[in-house]
Design brief:
The structure is a homodimer. By secondary structure, chain A is of the alpha/beta class. Chain A is built from 8 helices and 14 strands. In chain A, the strands form 2 sheets. The first copy, chain A, has an 8-stranded mixed sheet, with helices on both faces. In chain A, strands 3, 4, 6, 7, 9 and 10 form a 6-stranded mixed sheet that branches. Chain A is globular.
């Protein structure tokens, strides 16, 4: 089983990714596709007159502030627009895709974070009404039932809290949690860069291999912005039994073929 | 098994409906909930600057003109916003709901209608670029797998064409097709009226019982607007083996209890 994370940021060639998913499923590979939604949520939020707000945490991470209205837009865009458009596209390619969010059958369950500690104008403050969360449990049974009956699950990065509230979750870490839960051999995280770079301004500075033991150090030394979460997801997945994680380029033709051929950053 | 259709029009008490679904599933009833989306699609369409357009067919039916942009909004609202909000609400009540659209696993499949013959300013014309459809096949296997493993499917009224295009379908007829396919004992169609009325202006003029043989005649004589489709759905379901169809009031407390106690129009 292979878990593929794709999307969320600009530049990914979703058509090429779907074409590869179709080719591999036709060769009897079992694939779970996890997508994103940040970029389109921003566009629709602007149109609906509720522009996105990004905040900086005390630890220096920039993240979306997900108030209730943002959560509703994020849900609509991610589980409705993007998820169903991927399902339609995959179906057209002969893949019997089933789109789910983490709410469905409590697929992705975890703790809601209801407040953020942020830094604004140099001052630390607490921002309440947040609806994001961190996945702690995965309903692998539902995914395995679907995979065993020939379906290809397509998952929107939303989870359900223990109090049954919808929460926004990070797509990379959702993919990591899913790959651990179903004991996937490989997790492929497709991005709009070729992998982890020594110098973010230089795409030729790719780090091709990272042993798991050195992954945390690489995270601290080289990863910036969203790449931090991808590496964090990779470490979590490997620690929980996934065989291999490949962070690879999602902007190219045949992105899954290339990733599996070792193009990208392979963490093992 | 019971199929419940609820929503699409104003006034339904979705909380009361979900509470009843929770009570019945806790008593081991297997329920499939089919919802609507018209009303909220109109609201979001207006906000996004693409107001809904309604047209009158040559046979006098008023329906939504679903161009590509409307379809995308309809998909986002129906499969994203409404479907996941129902799943969240049911999960909070202890129901292990799984939200799907007709695209997922080709759950609802049929023919796309790409053009409408309409009457405008007294003239008949053909309006192209329509994305609605009529369900001809139901993937009962996927629903039965979910029901047998303890999930409660919640279905958004979208279908997939034979060419794998998303199409907007009527929710009442989707519920009818599903109830036939899974051989449900009962189909309950909840509406914002008490059932089929002899006089639409008089809610006390309820027709309590209709034998199947007289249903077509009742449809022609009494049904107006959306009630026509409900009766049409009822007839289709009964002809394909569903035991009983109840068109009942969805604005009241305990709507499923009341419907099953015979309050509403029972067609048999």
């Amino acid at each position: 089983m292979i878990v593929v994370k794709a999307g969320g940021s600009a530049g990914l060639d979703m058509q090429a990714i779907c074409a590869d998913v179709a080719e591999f499923t036709q060769q009897d590979a079992r694939i779970v596709l996890v997508h994103g939604g940040s970029q389109e949520t921003n566009t629709i939020s602007e149109k609906l007159g509720h522009p996105p707000r990004f905040v900086t945490s005390v630890s220096g991470h920039v993240s979306r502030y997900t108030d209730r209205e943002t959560l509703e837009i994020y849900t609509m865009v991610t589980a409705g627009r993007i998820n169903k458009s991927l399902v339609e596209h995959l179906q057209r390619l002969g893949v019997n895709a089933v789109g789910l969010s983490g709410l469905d059958g409590r697929l992705l369950e975890g703790k809601r974070k209801a407040a953020l500690r942020i830094v604004e104008n140099g001052k630390t403050k607490v921002l309440r009404g947040e609806h994001s969360g961190r996945i702690e449990r995965v309903n692998a049974g539902l995914l395995l039932t679907l995979l065993q009956t020939g379906y290809t699950p397509v998952i929107a990065p939303l989870a359900i809290s223990y109090e049954s509230q919808t929460v926004n979750v990070d797509g990379d870490r959702a993919a990591a949690a899913i790959s651990s839960a179903i004991k996937a051999q490989i997790l492929i995280i497709l991005s709009n860069v070729p992998g982890l770079l020594q110098d973010v301004r230089d795409e030729t500075s790719l780090i091709a291999h990272i042993p798991l033991a050195q992954a945390q150090q690489h995270l601290e030394q080289y990863a910036q912005g969203r790449m931090k979460r991808k590496l964090l997801g990779a470490i979590e997945a490997l620690q929980q039994g996934v065989g291999k994680v490949i962070i690879a380029d999602g902007r190219v033709s045949q992105p899954l073929h290339r990733a599996l051929a070792g193009q990208g950053t392979v963490i093992q």
